[in-house]
Amino acid sequence: MSLDEPGPVQLPDAKRKRGQGVGAVYETLRHEILNLTLEPGSPVDEVKLAERFGISRTPVREAMVKLAGEGLVVTLPNRFTIVAPIDFPNLSQFFDALSLMYRVTTRLAAASRTQDDLEAIRELQRGYTLAVEARDVPAMIEVNRNFHVRIAQAGRNRYYTDLFSRLLDEGRRLLRLYYSSHNDALPRVYLQEHEDMIAAIDRQDIEAADRIAQAHAQQIVRQIQTYITEDRRLNADISL
Amino acid sequence: MSLDEPGPVQLPDAKRKRGQGVGAVYETLRHEILNLTLEPGSPVDEVKLAERFGISRTPVREAMVKLAGEGLVVTLPNRFTIVAPIDFPNLSQFFDALSLMYRVTTRLAAASRTQDDLEAIRELQRGYTLAVEARDVPAMIEVNRNFHVRIAQAGRNRYYTDLFSRLLDEGRRLLRLYYSSHNDALPRVYLQEHEDMIAAIDRQDIEAADRIAQAHAQQIVRQIQTYITEDRRLNADISL
DNA sequence: TGTATATTCATTGTCGACAATTGATGTTGC
DNA sequence: GCAACATCAATTGTCGACAATGAATATACA
After folding, report:
1. Which residues of A191-207 are buried (b: 16+ CB within 10 A; e: fewer)?
2. Cβ within 7 Å of nucleic strand C, residues
3. Would the N or C end of chain B have less CB density within 10 A of its end CB?
4. Strand D closer than 7 Å to the CB of A55?
C-alpha cells in the first residue's frame, strides 16, 4: 500500500533562521510518523536527518527529545531511536481514554462555545464534507481530527485539549492503517453525527452533546476493532 | 518561609556514565521546581547548571527540552528559560481536570486492582499516616501524591496515569505554596477519606469509589480555593 | 566444530568553540 | 532634555570533533 507522497526534499543551502531547524525537523518527523510515511518501529537515523535538513546533529537531537516526550518516538539509550510502535495489546486503554475525552470536550464545548467557535467548527465540518465527497481519505482523517480538536478548544480546558489532541493523533495512525483498505462505507454516519454534535453544541445542550459524543466514540472504536479483528483473521488464515 | 533544604551539592569530579548527566539535571530540576525551591517565573541559567553538575551545556539543554515538554519550564526563544509560572487565571481548568482524573482513576482501580496493588496502596497510606503524625508537611504532600498515583496505576490506563501524575505534580506546587502557612487542621479529613477510598477499591465497589473520589477532590479544591481567597484578601488589604 | 574472548565498526552522548540574536548601554543630533 | 540610532555585552542556538558504548565480526582455544 502506497502511504504518501515522498517526504519534501529540503534545500540544504537555504539559510534558515536560528530556531527554524529544530522546528522543521520536529514538524516534518511528526507528520511523517502520523501519516505512517515512517513505519512504526523503524529506526530514525540522526545523521541522515541532519544531512537531509542540512543542519548538524544537535538540533536534530533536540527535535528527537521533543518527539520522545510526546511518545512519537522511543529512544533506546546508547543504541538507536525508533518510531513509536503501535501498542496493540493496550488498545483498550486507548479507546477508554479516547471515549472519555470525546465526551468531556464536547460537553464543555456545549457549555462554553462562542459564536466564533461555532463558525470555526462549522467551517471544518464543511471541509470534512468536501473530503468525504472527494473520497480523499488522508484529508478526511486530518480534517476530522482538526474538527474535534477545535471543539475541544471551544471547551477551554488546556489539559483536556492536550490529551485529546494526542489521542486523536495516535488514532490517526490507526485509521491510516485500516482505512485505506476498507475504502468508504462509514463516513456518511460520521457526517450526520458531526451535524448532530454541532447542533447540540449550538443550543448548549450539554446532555445531548455528551450522548452524541459517546455514541460517536463508540462508533469509531467499534469500527477500528472490526478492522483489527478482520486483520487478525487474515493472519490466522495464513498461519493455519 | 524557608522552603527546603539547599540543593544537593554535586561533585564535579565523580565520573558519570554516559546518560547520567541529563537524567541528573532533569530529576534535580524537576524536584526543585515542584518543591518551590526554584521560584515560579525565575530564570534558569544553562551555564550555571552546566557548572553545577560539571557537564557541558548540551546535556543541560536536553534536560530543559524535556522539562519544557512537560510544562515545568517555559522557553523564550533566543532569550531565556524560566520556571513555569503558576497559572492562577486558569486554575478552574486545573481543578476540573484534576477532579475528573481523581474519579476516573479511582473507578478503574476499583475495577482492576490486584492484591499487590492493594498492598502497595495500603503501604503508602501508612506512610501518609506517619507523615501526618509527624506534622511533616513536605512528606505529606509527596506521599499523598504517590498514594493517588499508585491508585491510578492499579487502574491500568497509561493515559490517565500520565495526565493525573502531571496534575498532581502541578498541585504539589499549589499545596506547597499555601500549606506551610496554614499548618495543620485538614489532614484528618483526608486520612479518613483515604481509608474509605481503599475500602471501596478493596471491595471493588466502583460507584462508591467514584463518589468518594469526587468528594475528596471537592475537598481539596475547596481547600486550595480558600487559601487563594485569603491570599487575595491579604493583598487587597495592603493595596487599600 | 563450537564456544569464549578480543577486535572492529557504526552510532550515540558529550564537549568546547563560534555565530546569531536581543536587551542594555552609550552616543549623537536636535 | 530627549529621541533616534549605533555599539556593546550577555546568552542562546548551532557546529564539527571526540570519546564512550554496544553489536557485529574476527580470532583463539578446546
Report:
1. eebbebbbebbbeeeee
2. A 17-18, 45-47, 57-58, 61, 75, 77-81; B 18-22, 54-59, 62, 78-79
3. C
4. yes
Backbone φ and ψ for A27, nearest 5 degrees, come out as -65, -45
Q: What is the CA B78 to C1' D3 distance in angstroms?
A: 27
Q: Which of B83, B104, B123 is the last residue of a domain?
A: B83
Strand D positions within 7 A of protein Cβ atoms = 11-17, 20-23
Considering the domain architecture, whether residues A35 and A65 belong to the same structural domain is answered as yes
Query: Are A145 and A37 in a shared domain?
Result: no
**CATH of residue B152:** 1.20.120.530
Q: Do B78 and A18 touch (CB under 8 A)?
A: yes
Residue with nearest Cα to nucleotide D19 C1'? B18
B16 touches strand D (CB under 7 A): no
Same domain? For B146 and B185 the reply is yes
Contact B103, B95 (CB under 8 A): no
Nearest residue, CB atoms, B66 vs list A65, A96, A158: A65
Mutate to test the interface with A, among B22, B72, B93, B100 (most CBs of A within 10 A): B93
B45 lies in the same domain as B147: no
Which CATH number fits the domain that encloses residue B58? 1.10.10.10
Answer yes or no: are the C-beta atoms of B184 and B135 closer than 8 Å: yes
**B158-182 pLDDT tens trace:** 999 999 999 999 999 999 988 766 6
Does any domain span residue A9? no
Question: Which positions of strand C lie within 7 Å of protein CB atoms?
Answer: 11-17, 20-23
CB contact under 8 A, B62 and A58: no
* Residue A6 within a domain: no
In this predicted model, what pLDDT tens digit does every residue of A185-230 receive, in sequence order? 567 789 999 999 999 999 999 999 999 999 999 999 998 898 888 8
Q: ipTM above 0.85?
A: yes
- Whole-structure pTM value: 0.91
Same domain, B120 and B215: yes
Counted domains in chain A: 2
Mean pLDDT, 10 residues at a time, over chain B (240 residues)?
44 64 95 96 97 97 98 96 96 98 98 98 97 90 96 98 97 87 70 96 98 96 88 62
Q: Containing domain of residue B70, as a range?
A: 20-83
Domain boundary among A34, A50, A83: A83
Contacts with B, A 42-81, CB within 8 Å: 58, 61-62, 65-66, 69-70, 77-78
CA–CA separation, B27 and A158 (whole Å): 25
How many Å apart are CA A91 and CA A68, to the nearest integer? Answer: 20
